[in-house]
Amino acid sequence: MKFTAAQIAGLLNGTVEGDEGAEVSQLAKIEEADGGTLTFLSNPKYTPHIYTTKASITIVNNDFVPEHTFNTTLIRVDNAYNAFSQLLEYYNQVKMNKTGIEEPVFISKSAQYGENMYLGAFSYIGENVKIGDNVKIYPNVYIGDNVTIDDNSILFTGAKIYSETVIGKSCVINSGAVIGADGFGFTPNKDGEYIKVPQTGNVILEDNVDVGPGTTIDRATLGSTLIKKGVKLDNQIQIAHNVTIGENTVIAAQTGVAGSTKIGKNCMIGGQVGIAGHIIIGDNVKIQAQSGIGRNVKDNETLQGSPALSYSDFNKSYVYFKNLPKIMERFNVVEKKLDNE
């Protein structure tokens, strides 16, 4: 599919400087672009590339002032980065605009689904499932009994949605994600053997939640594991049973959250963070990568380390830690002098 500079400028409310009829069919980095591609310039350190790029069209900020000649057609906008992101979203929508039901699939007779659904081959839809309008379910997706999926949500290839799960509007579940599997609940009997504790709750994803590939969200023992609207989960994250994650919190890859922990809204949690169970993390908290959280955290704290300290205390302590061998040498010298007195 090809687009002209004029068409793209119309989508972005931009202004064309150059050939309005210039056509593109692909996207590219400014330093790697060839003819027929669209790129953008927002970071000043990439400015030299605009004078050598082979891209047919380049999106730039309105305040860009060229210092040399160039061959690319410009589209001037208020914010080139945001405009390019907008185009990427539009491109994805066009590319993924599939509808219809492929064969073979299994759809339970009691399942209900809305208009413009796409259901990829080898997918399974269980009893009493309710699916809204414009939902896209890619091949090899499993949807268990009594699941609800609201309008405009996307489930990519190989996602597994266990029974009773509720998925809100405009959610994205990526490949290999498992939503609603049993929580890790076992109790020892008198012989020391571990007996399974039935996990009878569910998982609720509110609107606009993104779940990365390989991420698992366990069903509650009782009640619900709750992921509130706007939450973004990266790849390979473990969310245990009865966890609550507040609105617009973002969590990076390989983080694990143990059972019954409550995380507030607008938090930012780095990769490989370990969070203990049955604690409360407040709103607007920032946790640096590879930290270990074993206590309640107040609103607006920034933490680092394992066990985690406040960010400023960690940095002060690290100065001493990295110099510990030198400090010990000095200490030993002083100790010997004191012994000889």
Automatic annotation (TrEMBL):
Domain UDP-3-O-[3-hydroxymyristoyl] glucosamine N-acyltransferase non-repeat region stretches: 23-89
Catalytic activity from the UniProt record: a UDP-3-O-[(3R)-3-hydroxyacyl]-alpha-D-glucosamine + a (3R)-hydroxyacyl-[ACP] = a UDP-2-N,3-O-bis[(3R)-3-hydroxyacyl]-alpha-D-glucosamine + holo-[ACP] + H(+)
NCBIfam families given in the database record: lipid_A_lpxD, PRK00892.1
GO term, biological process aspect, one: lipid A biosynthetic process
Keywords, ordered alphabetically: Acyltransferase, Lipid A biosynthesis, Lipid biosynthesis, Lipid metabolism, Repeat, Transferase
GO cellular component terms attached to this protein's record: membrane
Active site: H241
Quaternary state and interactors: Homotrimer.
Function, in words: Catalyzes the N-acylation of UDP-3-O-acylglucosamine using 3-hydroxyacyl-ACP as the acyl donor. Is involved in the biosynthesis of lipid A, a phosphorylated glycolipid that anchors the lipopolysaccharide to the outer membrane of the cell.
Gene3D superfamilies cross-referenced by the UniProt entry: Hexapeptide repeat proteins, MurE/MurF, N-terminal domain
Family indicated by similarity: Belongs to the transferase hexapeptide repeat family. LpxD subfamily.
EC number: 2.3.1.191
InterPro entries noted in UniProt: Hexapep (IPR001451), LpxD (IPR007691), Trimer_LpxA-like_sf (IPR011004), UDP_GlcNAc_AcTrfase_non-rep (IPR020573)
A GO term for molecular function: UDP-3-O-[(3R)-3-hydroxyacyl]-glucosamine N-acyltransferase activity
Pfam family, one: Hexapep
Protein name: UDP-3-O-acylglucosamine N-acyltransferase
Pathway field: Bacterial outer membrane biogenesis; LPS lipid A biosynthesis
